[in-house]
Amino acid sequence: MVYSTSCCSALLAVLGSKVLSPGSQGYNASLTSYYSAQEAALHPSCIVTPISTADVSRAVTTLTRLNCTFAIRSGGHSTWAGDANIASGVTIDLQGLNAVELSDDRSMVSVGPGNKWAHVYQALVPENRIVAGGRVGEVGVGGLTVGGGLSAFTPRFGFTCDSVVNFELVLAGGAVINANETHNADLLHALRGGSNNFGVVTRIDLQTHEQGDIWGGVVNYSFDTIDQQLIAASDLASASPYDEYASLTMSLTYATGGSHGVSNTLYYTKPVEYPDTFKPFTDIPSVSDTLRTANFSSFAKEGTANNPDGYRALLATSSIGSSLQVLTASFEAWNKSVAAFSEVVGLEAILFFEPVPQVAYQTATLGPNVLGLDHNHGGLVIVGVAVGWTYESDDALVTQVAQQIVAEIDEQAKDLGEYFDFVYLNYAMDWQNVIGSYGAENVAKLQHVSKTYDPNGVFQNNVPGGYKLF
Length: 470
Hints:
This protein is α+β, with helices and mostly antiparallel strands. Helices cover about 30% and strands about 20% of the residues. Strands 12, 13, 14, 15, 16, 17, 18 and 19 form an eight-stranded antiparallel sheet that branches. Strands 5-6-10-8-9 form a five-stranded antiparallel sheet. The model has no long low-confidence stretch (mean pLDDT about 95). About 55% of the residues are buried.
């Protein structure tokens, strides 16, 4: 590899002021805008801030020619160090690619990958349109989409990646191509879950849907309601037929000092207040709530407020069935382990459950993805183990305990016959086998696409962030 200073000098020659040097105001602003403190602590030799596809092409051409190492950053909402940033290499910060353009017939929106979902919704809501995008407004469009993408609208429209009509991207040699069902369809399918392994995505064209206000919000409960909560969650996730308008995230929290709580984020994606589907949850006495009828921009802002950045962060995941037994076993594995966090300063540990019904795999109409889930799989529940804390000195302990929790959840689910070998990329840590969980057939497809469009392996060898194919 060429020294990064030489890479930055060459980039400066072709992109001028769009290359930010350490210590500059723009460089510091880019670093401080990462979600996790671990990502913000990495200091690249320079940061490239393109504002056009042509800029990205020049940057990638230069980086490839000089054999430089680099990272690709969309919204920067990953938790683990090195996913979308790099120490002593070059970071391509795509936040300047933030156009949002609705087609004349309003059926498609073209979105720059540097957008945050809040910006997308602000453009679509006045037109009574929506996309199956992120629920937290500050999450980036690019990373969520190529990682699969869960949404409040997933039961109706599938994963976020399933709504992609076309990707524009820059290949290692600088060529700009489009991937859609007519041209480069294999690449389109690979990008639906295949992450940053093929090129730098510079535009995403997404199918839109008619959508007015929805009902929902966050409901907070005392921890002694946990038995009722798990029963209600199991019943909702196991329902057949599943109410495709219903989306749930159940979060169990433990904070420094030993305080516990339960909060449910409920979305019903049409303006029906207190729908029968959510009655088992709304009948449980609560401490407070934000339930209301509003447009989705309002809920995305609330999601951002409930996910502040700047802390040390970890997020790991598992996928399990929906029986009361397996949800209870997962809760117990987490609950008995969080005591190990008692001395961690500034701690908030969360276990969350997100049902993904079988109908979500059947609603995707634009072609296949590579996630490995199809109509032959039953509905599953994606489990998240999230931790926030203050000091680097606690990193090893937090990681060790989180790994133990995930391993025990997996083991318990296997014993109950309710383990799904699916690791959702956008909730995964670097020590999890995301790509392998897609299944051997999809791994082979991804590797074939990589060899076709990136024959020299630039995005396998020179881009260390993300989950690699080989």
